[in-house]
Amino acid sequence: MGTAAGMLAAARADIGLAGRPNRITRDYAARHGNDFLSAPWCDMAVTYWARKSGNRAAVLPGGDRAYTVWHAQDFQKIGRWHSGTVANLNRAKPGDIVFFDWGESNTIGAIDHVGIIEKVLGDGRVQTIEGNTGDAVRRRIRSAAVIAGYGRPAYGADDYKWNGKVPAGEPVLSRGDEGDRVRDLQSALLKAGYKLPRYGVDGQFGDETEAAVRQLQADHPDIVSEVTGRYGPQSAVALARKLGQEPPQPAPSKPAPEPSTPPASAPPWPGRYITQPPVMTGDDVRRWQARMAERGWRITVDGAYGPRSEEVCRAFQEEKGLEVDGVVGPETWRLTWEAPID
User: Fold this and answer.
1) Chain CA centroid to CA 171, Å
2) What does the H/E/C string look like for 187-212?
3) What are the Peptidoglycan binding-like domain coordinates in residue numbering (predicted)?
4) Which residues pair with 128 in a beta bridge?
5) pTM flag (> 0.90)
6) Could you point out which of 52, 171, 225, 240 has its C-alpha 20 to 30 Å from the C-alpha of 327?
7) Is the confidence at residue 71, as pLDDT, over 60?
8) Neighbour tally for 7: CB within 10 Å
């Protein structure tokens, strides 16, 4: 069985694919007829990535899909559909299949488009990878206003296993945190009798986990001085007592970081957006590459902005909280020099 990581890897491999017919529409047409060679292909892309990554059963519960409405209904029929509210989108996960209605409703019958969630940004916003967006595969940032909902594929489980111990309370865990330490907390809460009925052990510290922590804190006023919903040292002691364990030791602290390199002043923006394809060349490209190399990025300083330069640009934009589009525009150019080097 495939995984969400595999599904995303398949989608990322096609970023930049443009025009039709293309390998995605040809693959679909080979099974369903030549009418699909030049048809709208957003859901054909999802189908292609699912089949390529071994996720056909999870992502395509009703079989191959080119029609987004039917695909969303497939998830609805098996109880894996979530409407596009801000609260639900904040609980979305990478690998969820997200459906759009440009008329801004949450009505399945009005769905126009589909993609895959790559990252949850908060406040009802997600970063996606979509086929047939501008007749290409691209990353997009979308908000709840245009999201009708998402389907959650039953991807294969990873190798996470709880060690049976209460997690340390430092660093403090709170709403928005994620990862195995959150799963350790959720596993311990369930073992202690607290309820996580909707999401269970999902590694996402959301409303449900916060409510369970609040109840834990309220149940132990002799240990926890304030009910906050945040899991800290006092909550860890309370949870350990509930499970008959010794209080956990704090997690090892990270070594103090080296002082950041003072920011430099950015040279004037060259006045053109550096992007590819086609490969752009020039002294401005060379200057940007040289500065990125100074910042520690592995990049060839050759004055040619090709796929590797775009890859570095995207990673830098993601690191600095910019729109991830792979284009060196005014803000990316400025922060290349002025953002601290951590």
Assistant:
1) 23
2) HHHHHCCCCCCCCCCCCECCHHHHHH
3) 179-220, 281-334
4) 117, 140
5) no
6) 52
7) yes
8) 27
The backbone region for 313, taken as left when phi is positive above 0, alpha when psi lies in -120 to 50, beta otherwise, is alpha
Q: Are 150 and 97 in contact (CB under 8 A)?
A: yes
Cis peptide preceding 270, ω within 30 of 0 = no
Could you report how far apart the first and last alpha carbons of the chain are, in Å? 39
d(CA 50, CA 80): 17
Distance in angstroms (rounded) separating the CA atoms of residues 157 and 169: 27
Cβ count near 333 (within 10 Å)? 21
Strand runs labelled E in 14-146: 81-83, 97-100, 113-122, 125-130, 138-143
The Cα 208–Cα 204 span in angstroms is 9
Q: How many residues does the chain have?
A: 342
Query: For residue 18, what are the β-bridge partners?
Result: 136
Choices 2.102.10.10, 3.40.50.150, 2.130.10.10, 1.10.101.10: CATH for 280-338? 1.10.101.10
Question: At 175, which amino acid appears?
Answer: R
Q: Which residues pair with 138 in a beta bridge?
A: 130
The pLDDT tens digits of the residues spanning 164-218 come to 999 998 888 988 787 789 889 999 999 999 998 766 776 778 888 999 999 999 9
Question: Taking the mean position of all CA atoms in its chain, how far away is CA 35?
Answer: 34
Strand spans (E) along the chain: 81-83, 97-100, 113-122, 125-130, 138-143, 147-151, 280-281, 304-305
**DSSP of 158-189, one letter per residue?**
-S----SSPPPS-SPB-TT-BSHHHHHHHHHH
pLDDT score of 157: 57
Q: CA-CA distance, 179 to 183, in Å (whole number)?
A: 7
Q: From CA 47, how far away is CA 33, in angstroms rounded?
A: 15
* Residue 56: pLDDT over 50: yes
Instruction: Quote the CA–CA distance of 325 and 140 in Å, as a whole number.
Output: 8
Q: Which letter does DSSP use for residue 109 in this model?
A: G
Task: Please report where in the chains the tokens 């953002």 appear, as a residue.
Answer: 339
